[in-house]
Specification:
heterodimer; A: about 240 residues; 2 domains; globular; B: Rossmann fold; six-stranded mixed beta sheet
Chain lengths: ~240, ~220
Amino acid sequence: MRQARIERWSRGDSSLHRRHAAAKILVAFALLISIGTLTRYSAPACALYLALLLAGAGVARLPVGAVLWGATVVLPFALCFAVVSALAGDPAKAVVFVVRAWLSAQVAILLVATTPMPQLIAGLEALRLPRFLLQVMQFLYRYLTVLAQEAGAMIQAGSSRAGTLRTLRFREAAAIAGVLFARSYARAQAIHRAMVSRGFEGRLPAIPQARFQLTDAVFGFGAVLLIIAVRGAFGWA
Amino acid sequence: MIVEVRDLCFTYEDGTQALNGVNFDLEEGQTVALMGANGSGKTTFIQHLNGILRGSGSVTVDGLPVTPPNLREIRRRVGVLFQDSDNQLFMPTVLEDVAFGPLAAGKSAIQSIESARAALERAGIPHLADKAPWHLSAGEKKRAALAGILATEPKLLVLDEPTTFLDPPGQRDLGELLSGLPQSKILVTHDHLFARRLTDDVAFFREGAIAARGPINEIVRRFEW
């Protein structure tokens, strides 16, 4: 469901949606580095980053609350590391870890919610990312829902026979994961056969996307300068 | 003759002999239904028509032997509609997926998009061009997959159980759509009612070979199908 919602958002129309994917990827990358290099907790810095991201979501006409909530998906993972930091006697680092993770997730959501997947792939290709890696990304994105459906069907089938899978033991869970892997492998073979039947010879041809224009350059350059300025204002050390 | 198969035999790596001396002909413009029990060799057979599998014996499609040097051209001329459309729709949007075949065949992006739009029109789903494949219904997926193979203007359509996952109205719509297409067709199906919409000619597979070929009523009666 989350994938479908973000997919719908990415098909919107705003000045941010219209920017070239490569420009948005570069800005997102700059923002991630800027957030990732915050070494100590600074409420004003975090507030400023949050304001930038909310402004981006506003310009893209995205539901701000949903974006903020969507980014919380990383918190369980971030909290694990934060707890370790806190137990090690560095609670400030723990806080900055959680905030950084949350803000970074928002950057990623903002990027994918304003850039349809084909454009995102084309943008990454324009930035010279290895084509093989991009194909893997594309397939993962395409078949994530199919695999999720297969996993859901297996859990449903198991529940129908066992009553509930809440008390699933490690052994059964491992067996289900193994069968899911085997099914995924069979699915991959079937997809490959279909691709070969349609002329696939090792390279996915793509329809060329929009060209990089002056407005994209101005947007990218301006946004990166702003991010550097914000980061510089709170010190590099 | 669009398809000529002589003495085709194929054994899987696990030792299962799936085809055991298949002889088969199909005239240009003809449609034939392949029927038979599960495991009788129908799907293995059709995978030889575009070189996905290679067994002993000879397979010729539209005058070209199915051998590695001819595979690119043969795969352009033979459009295979797979049973599970999810396997066939692998690009992020319907338009890109339908344009995949022409692009892979070496057409320019503009020509490919034109071919894709024309194929979507023929399949009756021009409005789905920008949709992601996972947002489509089973019937729409089937039509999108069909558009994907029509975009390369094949001379032969191979349809592997095309009614799977379709409800009766969806099956009716697909039957109407397929019967309006001029290409030669090989239809793999268990459903003789659906087969009747497209052809009266049936080849019945048993134990890796064609046990009989003839009018559908005769085959259905003879094999109690």
